[in-house]
Amino acid sequence: MTKRIQPQQTAAFYAQAVASFGISLTAMAIGLVYLPAAPWVRAFLTLGLLYVVTSTVVLCKVVRDRQEVSEVSSRVDQARLDKLLTEHDPFRVDS
């Protein structure tokens, strides 16, 4: 049986991604609060920001799920190929 290879993320990469998301979201929120515009304009832009954030999270999940499905199917294909290769005997004579 082959050992499953799992991609690893470093703690620094994870921390950088979380910090980057937090900083960008905070900067946008502060910018919307201090924007010299009517309250309805700020509310509309805030809803737009929330929509972009939620759709980004959903997109990340869909991409991850699709990648996992393709990895599973390629592992199944690899297992079938391994089975065929182990059962094949080039020196066998059919009588």
UniProtKB/TrEMBL annotation:
Domain YiaAB two helix span(s) in chain numbering = 13-65
Q: Where are the annotated coiled coils located?
A: none
Keywords assigned: Membrane, Transmembrane, Transmembrane helix
Highest taxon above the source species: Bacteria
Q: Where are the transmembrane segments?
A: 12-34, 40-60
One Pfam short name = YiaAB
Query: What's the protein name?
Result: YiaA/YiaB family inner membrane protein
Give the originating organism. Answer: Kribbella karoonensis
